[in-house]
Amino acid sequence: MIFHSLDFAAFFLVVVSIYWRLPHRGQNLLLLGASYVFYGWVHPWFVLIMLASTTVDYWAGQRMEDDPARTRAYLAASLAVNLGMLGVFKYFNFFIENVRDVLGALGLTVAPPLLELALPAGISFYTFQALSYTVDVYKGEMAARRNPIDFALFVAFFPHLVAGPIMRAKNLLVQVEQPRAWNATLARSGVVLVMWGLFKKLVIADNVGVIANRVFSQQDPAFEVLWAGVFAFGMQIYADFSAYSDIARGVARWFGFELVVNFNHPYIAHSPTDFWRRWHISLSTWFRDYVYLPLGGNRGGAVVAACTLITTFLVSGFWHGASWNYVIWGFYHGLLVWSTRTLGQALRLPERWPGPLALVQVALTWLAMMAGWLFFRETSADFLGHFVRLSPATTMQGEAAIGLHFFMLAATWSLPLFLHDLWALARERQVSLVTWTEIQMTGLRLAGVQAAGVGVLASLTLVLRSTTSLDFIYFAF
Amino acid sequence: MVAAAFLTPLSIRAFNRAVVGTPPGLGYLPALEKSGHYRPFDPIQIEKLRHGRPLWVFIGDSMLGTRIDPVYLGELSATHDELVSFLYNPATGPAWWYLSFKNHFVASGIAPRAVFVFFRDTNLTDTLFRVESLYGNVLDEVAHAEEPELNAVIAARTRGIRSRVHTAAVRAYGTDLASGWLEPGIRRWFVNWRFPDPGARYRFDQSLGERFDLANLRSDVAADLAGPNEAADFARDLPSSVLPLMIDLATQRGVQLCFVRVQRRPRGTVPPPQSPNLLRYVGDLESYLAASGALYHDDWGDPEMPESIYADGDHIRNRRHYTDVFRRRLDPLFR
Hints:
The complex is a heterodimer. Chain A is built from 19 helices and no strands. Chain A has helices at 6-19, 24-39, 46-66, 71-105, 123-138, 148-156, 169-177, 184-215, 223-254, 272-278, 281-292, 301-320, 324-346, 357-377, 381-388, 399-413, 415-428, 432-440, 443-464. In chain A, helix 3 (46-66) crosses helix 4 (71-105) and helix 8 (184-215) packs parallel to helix 19 (443-464). Chain A is globular, with a radius of gyration of 23 Å. The mean pLDDT of chain A is 90. Helix content of chain B is 49%, strand content 7%. Chain B has helices at residues 2-7, 12-20, 44-52, 62-65, 70-77, 94-108, 133-137, 148-157, 161-173, 175-194, 198-211, 219-222, 234-237, 243-253, 276-292, 319-329, 331-334, and strands spanning 56-60, 84-88, 114-119, 257-261, 295-298. Chain B has a 5-stranded parallel β-sheet with strand order 2-1-3-4-5, with helices on both faces. Classes of the chains: A mainly alpha, B alpha/beta. Chains A and B meet through helix 8, helix 16 and helix 19 of A and helix 1, helix 9, helix 10 and helix 11 of B.
């Protein structure tokens, strides 16, 4: 089920209207049933995969506590099942195809069978979430849970199920276990988040997505056209993905839950490291805590630390999809973070450049992040190889104007995002007008501004929504 | 807060009145609730048909355009190529085929030996296929100011709860009209500013169109690989489709219709698999056409149509080869 559908609107109304009439245990049971309906709406068998992951992690957690001598074995079982499912559904064909290609290069022709299986939506998200629980229990950072309903709801909670944010057990499971009370302020802010999310998805992401798709449908785009398409995709993926997170957070608030902030204006980051503190925060911190730090973090000398960092980014890239372009994308970011960090230390540069130079720093980071989206968007190695060699010198007459047209069009659709980012930048820089305005917004005045904002966003979404409806990008992962 | 989300958009109507005054009508397909400005009917095809007096007329989209070579078919079948006429437009659907048949072919009054309609799988009864958005614009040129029969079948298809909610929202808020004036303003401001001269603007649009035409697209994009509608049910879908309208018109005018189902891209020499639902649908379609006096030809499984003659997706690279096979398979109609 997708958020911007009539099915979901009806589903949400039914669930939320029953939810607040039930006691705490009943609420959890209802939410669990609703989550399975939500997840299995198109492919009911997806629920079985999730149940398998839930059962194994629930069992592994308890066994680790009950049988402390064999905690490592139970953790291994949890890792094997979760990563095994990911391996089968997401990476099996990629692995087989690469083996076939390698053998083919050696002169051995083999035709191994490929799996014709649909990738269960959100499997990368909920397996990582469930894994965080077993790892935390293994490390003794949290107690194993004994209530299967609560635990299953922690894995399946529908608002963020398909595309995150990835919630930790320490955060979400605790909320599941605690009684929740209706909070009108929270619900009101939830409506604002949902409306802002719908606007970003239907107006910004889908309209700029059409531009990106057009450019990447070309056999041989000119340099300017290609990079206008990359820019459009950079705006699309931000609007699209942050929209899902916002809607998820907004919907969760109507059930009394608070999900973590997943995006914090990543395009005003002042360095690649800062970008990763702001982009897909729940995944970045997951990789930091469960991959980067266990591998040694920044310990073990410069070379080892660099390898650890880049390995983490390579794994993160591979998490996104079973294709080499995602691995290259991960490598690009690993290299970027390592090189800027090393250069900054060598030149003793401050983390934030002073005065107006800060804007130059933000602009340079923005350019580097945009360039990286080429590796993410282009899945064909042949096209990617061609594109990185493209030069403006080969542009034919008239094509630069087409590139500029696409760039301006994408920038126009993205204007609300830029304004939102500028506001955030001004807030970070303590601009007095912005801080004063935010201080004024309390109580009824805040509610009035929120209502007006929601009304304007709803009107603009109805009028300007793209006629081409595109799937949420992260559904594919 | 929720009320604000539902009530504020009512102000869109006031903006519409201020910007466009009295709204234009709903056009020839009021069932779609799309008010706006429509391009006029283009009668030139009628004159061409009257002038050419073809013996065989073909209707379809790119499935036809990439398969039949009209000049070659004319050479194979008679003494000059004008005996074959095309009512063809790529990326069209059954609504366009029906309007083209009614408003161009039937209106021309000519009496060919046969009219062929090319389609894929379940397209013939997929009434809403390529009716809206960009695809819908090409309908204007084959539609009159009123098309009550087509509107009735579209209305029958849009009676579902989703369509009703959508229609109610469009009607209450006037969103389609607002999109009509606001969206082009956003989409075109830069072009209008950059090319204030209409001639330069036209040349820019033309170069943009050429740069993104089919020939410049990646093969997998140009291929149009949309699969059959697996939810299709012939008995359920037929009454709300254009097929009975075409059959009735052909019967009244004594025209021999022949529906040609093209084969989707095979693997080597093996035709693509068909689901039980699709097989049932095709069987029902064939029975219906036979009972209605129309002919049916199915390319599926033809040994002379291997993957090697295909270009991208379901398109054919070698039109002469296909035309030759087609001519032989349907020989009685060309003698």
